[in-house]
What does this fold into?
Amino acid sequence: MLEHFFQCPYCWEEISFLLDRSVSSQIYVEDCEVCCNPIEVSCEFQYDELVFFESTILGQ
It folds into this structure.
């Protein structure tokens, strides 16, 4: 698992999610730990390294 810090697209607070390195490409929804709004997360790993990360407002 990799802890990745980023800015919530709703409240702009810095938060972190744990990303599973064993799955090379992922899209999932997780709530912000500060404002509780749903964030759509897309990420990609290559050779155990994070090469792409995007957090967006759900549905956009």
The mean pLDDT is 95. Residues 30 and 36 are 9 Å apart (CA to CA). The chain is about 0% helix and 60% strand. The beta strands are 2-7, 14-19, 25-31, 38-46, 49-57.
